[in-house]
Design a protein that fits this description.
Elements (H helix, E strand, L loop, with lengths): L1 H5 L5 E3 L11 H7 L5 E5 H9 L8 H14 L4 E6 L6 E5 L4 E6 L11 H16 L8 E3 L8
Parallel strand pairs: 1-2, 2-3
Antiparallel strand pairs: 3-4, 4-5, 5-6
Length: 150
């Protein structure tokens, strides 16, 4: 990763397996992802590093609260986060500057979910690498300001 970063490349890390917090300490995760610019994860996986278990994130309000904590643990990175039904029904994309957008992936409406997560991640990567957070049609959220989300 360091080789790629030194040459100006973006480096994405997808955190799997989803019980990674049972296998690595937070400091090991931080060390392993130090040269990354993009973190891809379920919100529950990252919460496990601070709580020791998956938290059952099902709504945007909880995901936003968690993302604030995650930004402090893994600063200056894009965060491509999934949560909700099946830990895949909703997304939250957070820029290194704290700008975010969220929406639904359509997961709950599928009968066959094979490869669905990969397709969603590919779309997210394409959009952030070509147009940043402004390229998203979904509503924007500034995590640096207070917000009331039901």
């Amino acid at each position: 990763m360091q080789f790629c970063r030194q040459r100006g490349c973006e480096v994405a890390v997808d955190l799997v397996p989803h019980d990674l917090y049972d296998r690595l300490s937070l400091s090991e995760l931080q060390q392993l992802t130090n040269d990354s610019t993009i973190i891809i994860s379920e919100v529950q996986t990252l919460n496990g590093f601070t709580t020791g278990h998956q938290s059952g994130i099902l709504n945007l309000k909880d995901a936003l609260a968690s993302s604030s904590n995650i930004r402090h643990l893994l600063p200056n990175r894009w965060l491509l986060l999934k949560f909700g039904i099946g830990n895949m029904d909703q997304f939250l994309v957070v820029s290194p500057a704290g700008k975010a957008c969220s929406g639904y992936t359509g997961f709950r409406d599928l009968s066959d979910t094979t490869g669905f997560g990969d397709r969603v991640t590919a779309k997210e990567l394409y959009l952030i690498l070509t147009s940043g957070i402004e390229g998203w049609a979904e509503p924007k959220i500034d995590l640096n300001r207070e917000h009331n989300i039901p």
